[in-house]
Amino acid sequence: MVTAILQIFIVYLSGSVALLADTIHNFGDASTAIPLAIAFSLARRKPSKRFSYGYGRVEDLAGVIIILLILFSAAVAGYESLTRFLDPRPVGHLQAVALAAIIGCIGNEVVAEFRMKVGKEIGSAALIADGYHARIDGFTSLAVLIGAIGVWSGYPILDPLIGMLITIAILKIVLDSSKLVFTRLLDGVEPEVLDKVKDIAESVEGICEVTDIRVRWIGHRLHAEINASVDPSLSVEEGHEIANAVREKLLENFSYLSGTTIHVDPVTASGECCHCVPENLEKRKGKQKRILSVYPS
């Protein structure tokens, strides 16, 4: 916001449409902090009877709002650039435009580093997307600097052209951020996370097999549901201790893991296919026969 306010005065003085596009973009960036702040505030609330999983999903909705804000800034910047391209106007105070571009680049990079660092630490897709957005903004500010040099060299057409390039860069951010945010809204998760959860669970002593795993993000917190099989001769208490060992090992390896549901099955009836679905009865009997050769009753 500080960067955008500094730039807006120079836009007024110079009439640079490239700098105007960059300034609009920076105002858009500053406004994306508002839905994120609201989302993080709501996420701190304790789960209720109506929202038993808590309010972490609000963060994903904030990601959608951020994408819409970025898209709006692209539309405004594109309109202004096209208008100036069709109706060229002189650009003045080129030194001030260049200085504003440098300020914009530095300001955006500082914000980008901070947002991405914190986003990766807490596993927040929305915050990471916002950080990449700020980094691209820094590059667009450098594009404004190139435009100012072009105008100074006698090519004023470069100013609206740079504005159009900035618009294209903003649209690319919209596309990349949308993939990440909407994947999480649809309970998508990175495949490597799923593989890591399975490897950790299977490495716990007493676990014979991990048959089913479901992992999803709720905001920047990870939730896992695991079906694991154990020796059928174990007591309920021993099976419970093994499940706790799995949970503790997962928490050691995932700082952003907030919830785990571990269903312990006897190895003779493991997996979702063995939980009283009539059409799977024959499958279940066949599996029991195979397992009983290893764990005779």
From TrEMBL:
Q: Which InterPro entries match?
A: Cation_efflux (IPR002524), Cation_efflux_CTD (IPR027470), Cation_efflux_CTD_sf (IPR036837), Cation_efflux_TM (IPR058533), Cation_efflux_TMD_sf (IPR027469), CDF_Transporter (IPR050291)
Show the stretches that span the lipid bilayer. 58-79, 91-111
Domain of life of the native organism: Archaea
A GO CC annotation recorded here is: plasma membrane
Taking every annotated instance into account, which residue ranges of this chain make up the domain Cation efflux protein transmembrane?
2-185
Tell me the Gene3D superfamilies matching this sequence. Answer: Cation efflux protein transmembrane domain, Cation efflux protein, cytoplasmic domain
User: How would you describe this protein's topology in the membrane?
Assistant: Multi-pass membrane protein
Boundaries of each Cation efflux protein cytoplasmic domain copy? 190-266
Molecular function as annotated in GO: monoatomic cation transmembrane transporter activity
* Subcellular localization: Cell membrane
Q: Which UniProt keywords apply?
A: Cell membrane, Ion transport, Membrane, Transmembrane, Transmembrane helix, Transport
Check the record and name the Pfam families matching this protein.
Cation_efflux, ZT_dimer
Major localisation? membrane
| UniProt family annotation | Belongs to the cation diffusion facilitator (CDF) transporter (TC 2.A.4) family.
Protein name per UniProt:
Cobalt-zinc-cadmium resistance protein
Annotated source species: Methanosarcina horonobensis HB-1 = JCM 15518
